[in-house]
Amino acid sequence: MATLILLRHGQSDWNLKNLFTGWADVDLTAQGEAEAVRGGELLTEHDVLPTVVHTSLQQRAIRTAELSLRACGRSWIPVRRSWRLNERHYGALQGKDKKETAEEFGLDQVKVWRRSYDVPPPPLDVDPSVDERYAELPADAVPRSECLADVVDRMLPYWYDGIVPDLVAGRTTLVAAHGNSLRGLAMHLEGLTREEVIELNIPTGQPRVYELDARMQVESWRYLDPEGAAAAADAVAKQAG
Q1: Which of the residues are catalytic?
Q2: Which residues contact 60 (CB under 8 A, 6 or more apart)?
């Protein structure tokens, strides 16, 4: 059996302001820091201690990993990072208020943009490759807008080539990333349909633990704090409402 832990970053500054964030690199709030610490405490309480961590290139995921690992005494474990674990690129919606966007375009349209599998928002004019983190990527790899299908397509190569080798080697693997990159990974792991993944909400700061067999098939999964995870997932679902 291999153990995989998915951890969505704690509340960010733009989560608090109810803004579409995407590839904008915002930091955690004080609450987000506390959520990250609590995530690490839960790992200790349930004796699910990671031996390697993977993060995106965005500071809210990086700091969540750092705070969680410090809380469970695992700051020393190897760290691997990839842009392929970044949040979904929200295109021209980035920086916009979610409720105001729903009032302008209608809740149904915003839900399509936010949660549909294959409909991206309008693209962003600014080229993200001006950020030095992405400057060496091929031009056609840098998104200006993404739907969840796009996130799955760019995330899965890292799953197979970056994360799976650690799991096969017997390492308890923590992936600290974002709502949509983790939704895409959960969809792949659990065989969710496009309709099912639309309703999946990954709560912030709540470790989601999978036990996988030798073929990386899910034997079981659980939240370490089911009640807290359910409340946090409900809060995520209400962000656009």
Answers
A1: 9, 87
A2: 9, 10, 12, 25, 26, 27, 28, 32, 178
CA-nearest of 220, 189, 185 to 202 is: 185
CB atoms < 10 A from the CB of 189, how many? 17
Residue 201 is part of a domain; what is its CATH number?
A: 3.40.50.1240
> 48 near 173, Cβ under 8 Å?
no
Domain residues for the domain of 41 are 2-237
Residue in this structure with the two tokens 């992405």, named with its chain if needed? 134
Assigned token pair, 227? 């009640």
User: How many domains, the chain?
Assistant: 1
| Residues 55/87, Cβ–Cβ less than 8 Å | no
Q: What is the pLDDT of residues 134-168, one digit of tens each?
A: 988 998 888 999 999 999 999 999 999 999 999 99
pTM above threshold 0.70? yes
Reading the block at residue 209, the tokens are 């633990």
